[in-house]
Design brief:
The chain is α/β, with parallel strands linked by helices. Helix content is 40%, strand content 14%.
Length: 266
């Protein structure tokens, strides 16, 4: 049994519902909100696959830290490479998942946590980086893993997409392909809000289709709130210091994803 990384005696909501026997994928799980989400799930007894692009050393260190902090079993945690800057990497992740032993293919939760505020340039696929990482690759990953989602009427599988209230500050969903293929400026901009608006639209439509099937899978978008994490690394140092003084810590921000992933009343 793992030790919760949050104060379970607090009056506000904290994750308590056991997740033994359930398997989750968390993207961007080696630091920030993704790390705190993975740690919270592991403490609840879940099998957690940490997915990301920063290399096996970084994820091995994250796995060791989670094991130390929560007391979970080492075999609850695994790493699989996933680079959202590349659609081919997303497809390779799905192919690798399909090659797992059949009893390890069942997926009870997908936490689409990874995202960036902005980055200069375009991806190898020719799309503006922020839009591809935050939306296009997330969309593709979700669609490719949907067939592995395993739930029941009493215990549906969960897809949690980390969004943002920045979706309110846009000019609408971008549909002009030349615009989507134009390099971003590398700083927080309309591109971020647009990507999150697309996430929300996707979640709404996918939820409608899942209800119509019907399939025992629930999908939700969440806004974790302003958080002091590596998300802001592209900002000037002075801005990062200001954010760190007023923003919440990642473990608190992760409760939003953990609530959406584990609570029956979602």
């Amino acid at each position: 049994m793992g030790i919760s990384p949050v104060d379970t005696h607090a009056k506000e909501w904290v994750p308590r519902r056991r997740q033994d026997g359930r398997r989750f994928v968390v993207t961007g799980a080696n630091r920030g909100i993704g790390y705190a989400t993975a740690a919270g799930l592991a403490a609840l007894g879940a099998q957690v696959v940490l997915a990301g692009h920063e290399g096996s050393d970084a994820f091995q260190a994250a796995i060791e830290r989670i094991e130390l902090e929560t007391g979970c079993a080492r075999d609850q945690l695994a790493f699989m490479p996933l680079d959202l800057r590349s659609l081919d990497s997303v497809r390779q992740f799905a192919r690798a998942w399909a090659q797992r032993p059949r009893d390890e293919q069942q997926l009870h939760g997908l936490i689409n946590n990874a995202g960036i505020a902005g980055a200069p340039g375009t991806s190898a696929d020719g799309f503006e980086l922020c839009f591809q990482i935050n939306y296009l690759s997330m969309f593709l990953l979700t669609r490719l893993l949907l067939r592995f989602m395993s739930g029941s009427a009493a215990e549906p599988a969960r897809i949690v997409c980390v969004s943002s209230s920045a979706h309110l500050f846009t000019l609408g969903i971008p549909t002009d392909e030349p615009y989507l293929r134009r390099p971003g400026g590398g700083f927080f901009s309309l591109r971020y809000g647009e990507s999150k608006l697309c996430v929300n639209a996707f979640v709404r439509e996918l939820a409608r289709r899942l209800r119509a099937e019907p399939l025992p899978v629930e999908v939700v978008a969440v806004h974790p709130g302003s958080t002091a994490s590596g998300f802001w690394h592209s900002f000037p140092p002075w801005a990062q210091r200001c954010i760190a003084r007023v923003a919440q810590d990642p473990s608190r921000a992760a409760r939003t994803s953990l609530f959406a992933a584990t609570e029956p009343r979602v």
